[in-house]
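Field log, afternoon session.

UNIT: design team B
ACTIVITY: writing a sequence onto a fixed backbone
BACKBONE:
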């Protein structure tokens, strides 16, 4: 579990009154691992970790049996293996997770159009408008849980509350495979015993600052004047935490919230200094980012690269294009220019990443043709590749340099 999930469960005497609690937070339990176990039921009850098995790999998901040993997502695989040496390691199958995620989100939309996905495995729902048709929020939550199990063979946990913040905390408290209602008139009773780290916006540094002030629980923070918090933490964060400590969260569920950026990155198995291999990885990542842009009907104007050296020093470079794009060729060319501008030829890199920002709907983008430029070109070719990959798989069509090994990569 992450640091913020390591909080004690509240008392069981909150009751089950869901009046005034239209917000659900639905969170799949150990999502990637649960999807893998559908095909390997013999591993149920065994510590299982999903992640790249190499020395540079990180944990993407872990079953609750593995979490009992301290394993959690984003942990280096080497540390996870030390903590849980008997764990079964399963390499990730990303296409499989996307398919299940789409199916789960479709289930949510059959209950309400007010669905705000915040990751591939979790979403907020506002079911206030579905009460007359489907019943009270807790009953809707139970129906969602039953359908997810029946149609996809995985479990989820659901928090029911009067705000997004409290609903998300409730889903964390009832994991795995649980349902928890926090009645509107019991929010303070639920929040105040929790450690202050449970509040959104309290990272490790903020938590340390609060503990130095004698603030260890949400209740402690709630009793501090907001002016004091603003003086010690800053105007915005002080006001934000003061509101959350009393359960005040005015944010609405926002369906189809636009993505702010789309990116991909890769950590090399061993540090790489060869510019040819680095550019090849930039091409692979550019192809992946462009495909995700087109899948979401986005185009973006700003291309950025992340370059992490062997000593963990990270360099970022970005460039804003003349017009938005969803074309891998344009993204790749820009990424290579940014890599060259960073003057890292021969410098060994641990990680590279490509990201496109300043997104807008692709349908709103007007393309200005250059003198003598054809109306069809790279974009249409990549759209044809999209159609082929949807039918035959992600690696059905690739740039030649990503298919054929270079001469120095051939095992003679």
């Amino acid at each position: 579990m992450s640091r913020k999930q390591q909080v004690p469960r509240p008392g069981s005497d909150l009751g089950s009154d869901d009046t005034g609690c239209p917000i659900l937070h639905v969170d799949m339990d150990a999502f990637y691992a649960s999807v893998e176990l559908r095909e390997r039921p013999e591993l149920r009850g065994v510590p299982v970790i999903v992640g790249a098995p190499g020395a540079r790999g990180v944990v993407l998901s872990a079953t609750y049996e593995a979490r009992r040993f301290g394993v959690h997502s984003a942990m280096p695989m080497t540390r996870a293996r030390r903590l849980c040496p008997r764990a079964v390691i399963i390499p990730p199958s990303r296409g499989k997770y996307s398919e299940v995620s789409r199916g789960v989100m479709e289930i949510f939309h059959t209950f309400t159009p007010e669905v705000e996905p915040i990751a591939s495995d979790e979403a907020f729902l506002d079911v206030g408008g579905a009460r007359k048709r489907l019943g009270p929020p807790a009953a809707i939550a139970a129906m969602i849980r039953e359908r997810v199990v029946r149609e996809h063979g995985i479990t989820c946990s659901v928090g029911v509350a009067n705000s997004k913040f409290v609903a998300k905390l409730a889903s964390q408290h009832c994991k795995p495979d649980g349902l928890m209602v926090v009645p509107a008139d019991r929010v303070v009773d639920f929040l105040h015993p929790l450690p202050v780290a449970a509040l959104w916006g309290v990272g490790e540094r903020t938590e340390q600052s609060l503990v130095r002030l004698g603030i260890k629980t949400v209740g402690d923070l709630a009793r501090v004047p907001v002016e004091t918090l603003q003086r010690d933490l800053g105007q915005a964060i002080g006001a934000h935490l003061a509101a959350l400590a009393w359960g005040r969260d005015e944010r609405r569920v926002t369906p189809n919230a636009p993505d702010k950026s789309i990116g991909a990155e890769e950590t090399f198995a061993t540090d790489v200094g060869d510019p040819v291999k680095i550019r090849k990885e930039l091409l692979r990542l550019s192809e992946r980012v462009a495909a995700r842009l087109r899948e979401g009907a986005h185009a973006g104007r700003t291309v950025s690269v992340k370059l992490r050296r062997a000593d963990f020093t990270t360099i970022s470079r970005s460039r804003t294009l003349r017009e938005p794009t969803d074309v891998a060729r344009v993204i790749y060319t820009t990424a290579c220019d940014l890599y060259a501008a960073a003057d890292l030829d021969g410098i060994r890199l641990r990680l590279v990443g490509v990201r496109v920002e300043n997104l807008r709907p692709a349908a709103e983008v007007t393309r200005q043709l250059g003198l003598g430029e054809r109306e069809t070109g790279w974009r249409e070719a990549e759209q044809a590749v999209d159609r082929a990959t949807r039918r035959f798989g992600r690696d059905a069509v690739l740039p030649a340099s990503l298919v054929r090994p270079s001469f120095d990569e051939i095992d003679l």
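LOG NOTE: The chain has 16 helices and twelve strands.
NEXT ACTIVITY: expression trials, pending approval
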